[in-house]
Design a protein that fits this description.
alpha/beta; Purple Acid Phosphatase, chain A, domain 2; 26% strand; binds manganese (II) ion
Amino acid sequence: METVFISDLHLDKTRPNTTKCFVKFITDRSPTMENLYILGDFVESWVGDDDPADGVIDAFEILKYISKKTKIYFMHGNRDFMISSKICNKYGMELINDPQLVNLYDKRVLLMHGDTLCVDDIKYQEFRKLVRNKSWQTQMMQKSLEERLKIANDLRNKSANETTYKDEFIMDVNENEVKKCFVKSGADIIIHGHTHRPMVHKVKIDDREFRRVVLGDWGSKSHIFVLDNKNFELKEIQLK
Ligand code: MN
């Protein structure tokens, strides 16, 4: 029995094939999966408990279905941070904090979405602080569903435009911030997504070596991470 980590599916009504692939992936994988960690950006946008989940509902339903046997943990990303614990419970998932330290197979694993590691992107960090604020969220929820869906759509377009013009290094994690997280948490491994740059990095601090695992986004393929007593594997999967 294994633990599987995924992130950055960015499920959206405009990409129905990814939702289909996810349902197939979960169905195939579930017999051997004891834990599933979804580390953020499961959906491209989410505007509150009344979100219609247009085009992505099958993905939530399959999670609910397998949750009878697989323990599912859900962490917010920068796209889906409005998914409440109520919605998570409805679909058989437990909402976890970012960061979250867990003990798995005698390893101390720090789980993150990854956006908090990108401290060089000052404009983004300011935006993050704003939208994670309770009063901003309360104000948002006072707007009609229609208005919120429009705002989500505008933000998505704005973000896509800005990303095109940002320097490569600004969009990636800051190495010092990574080291700080290892030291502060006492973790052996950090697993995160967000940057869409799947890789297992070695991180040296003094004379110790740590591992930072970066998960892949979901397009025609992805990279998931599989952990159990024997395996420590960033695995490429084909999505068709
Ligand atoms: Mn992200």
